[in-house]
Amino acid sequence: MQIIFVPERGHALTVSLFSKALLVVVASSLLFVFSSNLNAQAVLEEMDWAYAISPIFPAEEDDGTLYSLPGSEGRFTLNEARNRFGPADWYPQDHLPMPSIVAIGREAAGIMACSLCHYPTGQGKPENASVVGLEPGYFKQQLQDMRDGLRGSANTAKANTAMMMAFAVNMTDEEIEQAAEYYGAMDWNQWIEVVETDTVPLTFRRGGLHIPLEGDAAGEEPIGRRIIEMPVDPEGTELLRNPRAGFRALVPIGAVAAGEAMATTGGDKSIACAICHGEQLQGLGQVPALRGRSPSYLARQLFDFQQGTRQGVWSPLMDAVVENLTGDDIINLTAYLGSLPAEF
Predict the structure, then answer these.
(1) Which intervals hold domain Cytochrome c (predicted)?
(2) Is there a domain that residue 238 lies in?
């Protein structure tokens, strides 16, 4: 659309100047938005390792073979091991009696068993979360935040975040209470080994995990600025959901020491972790433990806080912590935290 003012030259000049100014403002705004989007995308790509977004692979066909795991008396088919509403319990002796919501979920409401992804022990995996040993009040608040749409992911392709939000909406208060009390009554066990290295195995992504390539495709590549957290037993973890098979987190050389310095002092850009998380980072009341937890999980949470997609009731306490963190800072911090033993 064109607007032309002919009668008075002065008015035409005024409108012309206004139009030019308006165009400059609009163009500048569009450039800012475009630049912001590019910057946000670049930052998201920098943190891609922590989210490990995977292509969708067809499920391994169940041919009826019965599988076993060391130390387990159970023998299960693939479909039994990965049953969303009652997955195989390989080691019943490793955990307390499970409430129904943990053991089988509630299929009528579309709520999968907690034990499917987080395991009966609550140890979890890098693509989700360890939920064992959490103070029940904190556990319940996180599910309430998910119910309220306050705990999302900075990476919208992280499908299991949306799934958890849907589960939380459909869970009853009693089910949330039962899950919180069950997992809160057990202790976290160290099962992540942090290793500093220059190179890492070539990997592909499946189910949110970094899986080493095998055979002719196997090889090594520089680690760069990322953490590669892999299952020690890829088949046992990815296919059979072995709750005793741990993980190895490969981190850049020097990351642990750099992370310790930042965690203990805050450096010149953050706040010492112990102020809220306890002197030994073992957790303090409804503030969760950090020591020994998955670097990938912790990195996602720091980034989600920073990007404003995790906005729960307690989230404002993290604002000053994450505001000035770089991708390297997040790598260093989470490498250090993951390296801490559960016992202290």
Answers:
(1) 100-187, 254-341
(2) yes
